[in-house]
Automatic annotation (TrEMBL):
SMART domains (alphabetical): EXOIII, RRM
Family annotation (PROSITE patterns): RRM (PS50102)
Source domain of life: Eukaryota
A single Gene Ontology CC term: nucleus
Lineage: Eukaryota, Metazoa, Chordata, Craniata, Vertebrata
Organism: Geococcyx californianus
Gene: Rexo5
CDD domains, sorted: REX1_like
Gene3D superfamilies given in the database record: 3.30.70.330, Ribonuclease H-like superfamily/Ribonuclease H (3.30.420.10)
Domain RRM residue range list: 566-644
Key word Nuclease present: yes
Name of a matching Pfam family: RNase_T
Record-linked PANTHER family: RNA EXONUCLEASE 5 (PTHR12801:SF82), RNA EXONUCLEASE REXO1 / RECO3 FAMILY MEMBER-RELATED (PTHR12801)
Protein name: REXO5 exonuclease
GO molecular function: exonuclease activity; RNA binding
Amino acid sequence: QEKPSRLSAALFGEDCEISHEQLYELLKYAALGKCHNATQPSWCRIYHQSHLAGVVVIVLHEMSQLHFYKFYLQFKHLRKVFRHRFTLTASTNLLAGLCGEGRNLEPPSTAQGLTSSGSERIPESSDLQCDPIIRKYGEKKRGLTSYTLTLEEQEKNDYPIKGSPRCKGYVHTGCEEPRTDSSPLFGLDCEMCLTVKGNEVTRVSLVDAQGQCLLNELVKPETTVMNYRTRFSGITKKMLLPVKTRLQDIQTRLKKMLPRDAVLVGHSLNGDLQALEMIHPSVIDTSLLFARNEGRRFKLKFLAKAVLGKEIQSEQKLGHDPAEDARAALELAQFFIEQGPAKVAELNLEMLLTTEKLAEVSQKKAALQPQGCSAQKQLSKPPHLSKPCFLDCLQVTGQKPLLLGRPELDSSGLHHSNTSTPNKQILQRALEDVPLSAFSIIQFGLGPEYVASHLLAGLCEKVRSKLTDMLTIYAGPFEEGFCLKSVKKEFGRCGPMQCLTVVTETNQPYVCVQYEVLEGAQLAVESLNGAEVAGSCIKVQRRVTAATLDCDVLIKELELDVENEGVIYVAGLKKSLTETDLQEEFSQLKDLETLFLPKDLQTGKHRNCCFLKFQKSQSAVDALEVINGWTVKGSKLRSRNALASGHLWRWIWQMNHSDGKQGGNTLYEKTEQLSDCEQDLRKKVKKLDQHIKKLYRRLQDNTLCVVLFPGVN
């Protein structure tokens, strides 16, 4: 039974922030596997990538993290299904990288045959370790005997084997002496035609290590020729009419010509030896020597151009020249042996192949354009190859990417629609086409009227105001002359405080405490309301405003969020405690998976709280009972279920410390104007969430699905 593909990532605390390049790594490996030098992402791991049914990227055009938290309750399905969430760091447009600029798909380094202008790119050592050539042979140079096929490899690749029932009647070359690293190399290549018997030899070429042609002979087939395959073999009926040489003659000559320790070199040499009906124990196959992933092979023509800088199998010639092909295969083997695997890997052959194919596609496109248009494009574009883009690379591998909702992108073979197309139509098209596509980008949007800068500024201020209200609690009344220090200490045990002020406008004093984390404020409301603090029985509550009327609902939803499953918040820690101290203290808790100690993003100092993630939800529930009231090095701990995952508390911190705070009546008037369209916006977001739900349900099992909130800039 096939194992399902799955994603594993470090998702806790500070690991919630990733760059566009890191997301690009994930998408590239998920879509391409080990092709095109794609490697496992540096920050997460995909298991059983080959079982992935597809990759789907849903883009919510010009929506950002602001929209996700402003309309958190409306994104009901998104919150429930998508377990892994990350903050994307500010960078250039990811979609441009996927669809046009090809970020991380650099032009190839200059090789002897394929060149690119600009600086050369040599893969880093970490890239080399993942190269199939390095994985197979290591980095060190070796002698030629390290590259000859083992008996097992010969059997696997359909080579004639001595004693095999299917090789009955085959002639052995008689080369039985042990091979050494100084054994002579000979290049061999044959051309075949199709006869009643199958593939029969029509021409044989043998070259020595200096490239001298020792044999270049036409051979008359034993049975009637059905297809001369002239396009590839170059053989015609007329050429074979006067030929008297038969297969047995060639077999005899080869046996005499080859030394007893000869090593034969060829490209897919098994086919040549099968056609020759000969068995030879020591071979180097260049189609296997220049290893690729997943059993694929480079063509001889490409390798000759990329590695040796030689053009072979020219389309201007009639058919292939077997002497030329034998010489090319021999020189490739000599290059590999002399230079070593590391130098060969540095050629970055996968990328060279991609670039070459993309150049061919571009040439075909140019040939189809009107002459004037083509000439104009040549004047405006640099003469060298442009970087291959991500979606073009997919096409090269035979996959058909699907684009819906990006009108500015128009690549050959891509399906696309206009962003002005209603979301409903885009959804309808996506439901039909996405399950059939290996890689899809689907873009939905709210419409230009909902992403205007003044509207975004108003939304931002509303979210900031609501967060501030949720982070702020009021406590009292206290007696006149109460001990402020003991109040600070008591409320500080609930979590890191941003500020604590005394409210004097009331008949008796109250305090206003603003916390840095939602859990701190909520813990204060739950644990200190009705408690005796500084000699007074106090009430702890949040300020009641229009924005906080649904606060309890929001808190409950945050608590049930899949990201907070099995995660608890612990407060009251001494700041002197290190992560190692805490690991020791909490090591007795069952199924503890991760401990995260938040830091002040400005000073880098630890806060007086931490988050604990457990492998099982029940273990988190059990831990809450144990920890509440637990004393660690003189500190009495308080705990509750987590509310804000790493990206949320980081975002809250940024909102509270950004320079974008505005005051005065002007902004108040602007935010008041939002009320008219905010109801519409909620409905639209709810509808978007339903679209995502419908599309998600249509996806095949084992599909990687990513939802992007790219923002405006």
